[in-house]
Each structure stands twice: as structure tokens, then as C-alpha cells.
Amino acid sequence: MTFARRPRRRLLGLASALTVGAVLLSGCGAASTAAPADAEPKTGGDLVFLIDSLGATWIPNNSSISSYQGQIWGNVTDKLVYVDAEGNLSPWIAESWDENADKTQFTLHLKSGVTFSDGTPLDAAAVVANLDIWAKGRPDEGINRIGLFPSANYQGAEAVDATTVTVSFSAPTLSFIPTLAYHGSILLSPETLALPADQQADLTKDIGSGPFVVEKVAEGDSVVLKKRDDYNWGPEAVGHEGAAYLDTITYKQVAEPTLRTASVESGQAQVAYNASPQDLEALKQEGLTVETPRYLGFVNGYALNTSVAPFDDIKVRKAVQHGIDRDEILSTVYTSDWHAAESFFQSTVPEATDHTADFAYDPEKAAALLDDAGWVKGADGVRTKDGQKLSFTLYPNPYLQASQSVDELVDQQLTALGFEVNLETYDVPTYGQKVIGNATVPATEITRSFVDVGTVAGVLTSQKKGDEDWFKLGTSDATLNDLSTRIATATDRDARAKVADELQTYVFDQAYFVPLTQIVQRVYVQAPEVSGVSYNGLAYAYYLDAWLNG
Predict the structure, then answer these.
(1) Which of 56, 291, 404, 542 is 20–30 Å from 378 (CA)?
(2) What pLDDT sits at residue 448?
(3) Cα torsion through 20, 25, 28, 33, rounded to 10
């Protein structure tokens, strides 16, 4: 099918139609009216979901599960635990769980009768196989461990009987149960896990236990899911018994955001993912539904590299903190669906505390900090010191829809203070090669989801192998190491919340992180005929309870 643009004066002008590839779609008529609140769900129908990317690999542990491919994995697989938008945990495949007093051993009690789509049981032995691969991966074979899983202290899991698993750690690991709801913790059949990496990369061979199964894959173009008729173990929090209502979901790759939304407007698709924020109000006025769920995790902001100039100087880091006008960013780039950052945690994280004053916009204070650090403005407005310009490069994050627009505003704001800011823009693959993990990049625009604050130590420090070390401190900051360790090894949630506040205070005191806004990374524009979609604490669309009214 050809997805054709319609003239849209406020968004597109007289753009020509583009062909994005043929795929058989149903329900291509004009959008119907929204279902009444008390309407009975209808069984059947085919939903078309337009997505900007399908990622580079389907190897489960290596896939871009935190961005694009998580949409598909979340409907093909289940998790042991469900997390809602407020961070509340509830049963899913694990009906209940116990933990010992020092939080080093956990017992999972599984639902009976659950099967993978190939008919094999999702029993204790299968859960053990999944836990082992999440914790360890098989790096020699090119299969990663799962990020944010508490691997460093993982001692192992044991199947006590068909529905009981015990999991042991060498140190307190209060974050373990929440991590089971993380988007990477997808349950796959032991047969899938045993496959070599090149066969795991074939999505049709990856067997889950979810409400949909993979029917067809056209690499780089589309993935078609069909419902599993015998599914009957959805998460309690969703409240849906039995199989899904929808017959199929087609995830179709369409790179251009305006073409995705135009296709929903014209009735050729039902969902457009990652629309431009500037278009959302107009789309709402047309009668489309816009969903902007926030996920649990870090806000959007810059992790500053303390090992390279100019951010090896705390005064320069603090000048950036106070030199950015976030209200201008919100009012210029975003809509009312976005919120001001209050910390470097999203405000939905239970342990988040308000640190707005620590990084409030204050250009006079920022200028004074730069003066005090010896940076002097030249005739061209750029500050210099010892013959060097106050210069650095920003790399807009291609995973974030409005990143370039935000960075362009930040460029203007910091230029007024005497910085020379350069922008270099890359597509997703190039960004991964040149920016992610590059120890010479001075500032990385970043965000990160997490389900439990106990996992942040592995992001902020490098005390354990595989830690992300956002600020390139190594193990040099003893205070940060101590705070991160205390959070990771806490055995009491209330005490841990106090340490989390200390951590937030310290990171801002050292100006390691510069918040921009609370993140809405996943934006959904839906036709009004779409009903019943749920969004978990990681802001993914879950279609077990979804149906089409028309």
C-alpha cells in the first residue's frame, strides 16, 4: 500500500505523496468515532502501527528493546512482574514472591499452566534459564547480558519444583524483583535461548509466551503479529482474561514522522509512533488521540564528561547547569504534555525529590562562574582562557524526536554566555558508532528508563565490570561510589529513599548532570477507533485489551 500525504496547511504544506512499500492492510477507510465509555469490546480487526525504526538486530539481549523493538517484544513475550506508570509492582507470571530479611534470596511462585507458543511449559526450569541469560549472557557468542539486571551479585537460580524458583545473591539486592518488570526481562523459551546468536537474530525463531506470535517478518520493512487463541495469563493489573481482541498487529517501518501521522489521519493506519511534539495540538484538534506516557527513570539531560575540557572544571559545569532556560525549551519545542525537570529522576520515580533550585536558570550566576574560572569574552563574544576557546560539541540524540531542536536552543542560550557550541547530527547507526561509549564526547544527551532506583549505581559509576560510568569518573569519586553502593545494597526501602535524596543532592552539587525536561520518549498518535490500549511504567503500548471500534 502507498501511504499518501494529504495537504495539511499547519504541518506539511503541499508535500508530494511518498511510497513506503507494499503491505496488505485492512481497515483503510476513514477513521470512525471514539467508542462510548461503556461500549463492549469487539473481537477481530487488524491494527497497523507505523514506527520509525525496527532496529538493527533481533537477538533478544542485544536488540534495541529500550526504544523501538520493545514495542514488539512486549506483545510477543510476558514478564514475571508487571509495573504500572506509578512504579507499583503486581503479579504476572510470578503470582507472588518472598524475600529473606537481608534481601539476598528471593522465592518466586509461578502461575501453573502457562506455556510458550510452541506448547512447551513456562515452568521453573524455563525461568531459571531466562534468569541465567539475563544475568550472564553468552558474551563469547555475541549475546549480551541484560543492562540494569543485578548481575554483579547474582549467584544463581534454582528450580525447587515446577512452579517455584529460588534466586540467590551475594549481597543485598532490593532491586531484584522490580528488575523483573524491566523491558529487557522478557521470557523466552529455553529452546530459543539455546540457539546461537545468528539464529536468535531470526525473529520467527524467538518463541515467547505472550498474547501475540510472530506471523511474518520483512527485514527492514515490517513485522506482522497474530493473536494467540489459547492465551489466558495476562497481568492482573490490566484485568483482561483470555485471548486478545485484535486479530493482527502490523508494525510498519516509516521513517518520516509527518508521513506516519498523515497515514493515521487518512485512515491508512491506526497508530503513528514518535510524532513531532510541535504537531500534537493540531492532531488533537483533528480528533486523533495523543498519548504521551512518561516512563520511570532518568529525565532527559546532559551527562557531562568530567575527564575532558571544558567539563573537567566544576565551575564550567555549574555554568551550564544555570545557563539553560528550560522554560524556553518547554514553551518552544514541546507541548503541555511535557513537564519541567525537578531532579535527574522523573517525578514518577517514588524516590525522586525536588532539586529544581540546584540547577535553576540564572544567567548572571552562570556568567559569574565563568568569570571566576578565568574565561574571558573576546570581541567575537566567545570566551577564551590560556589561548583556548570555551568550546564543545553537542550530538543530538536520534532516539529522541525533538533532540536537535532542543540542542539548537541550548546552543543559542550558551552562546549568549560566551560558549562556542558546535552541533553534529548523526542517524541511529552512526550515533551508536561515534557517540555511545565514546570517552572523548564532552556531553551526552541521554535518558534511561529503570524500574527501581537501586539499579542506578551501575549507570553513574564504574565500580563493577560493565557499569556505564556516565560522568567518566572511573572510581575516583569516593562519595559517589559510597552513595551508589548504599543504594544498591540497601535492605530497607525507606532508608534507601533517604540515600537517594543524598545522591541527587551530590550529583547536582558536583554538576555532573544537567537536566533538560522530564522525558516523554514514546509518543502515540491514534485513530479514534482504537480503544483499550494500556501503557506500563516503561511507556510501552500493550495490546492485550485493545480493540477497534469500527
Answers:
(1) 404
(2) 84
(3) -110
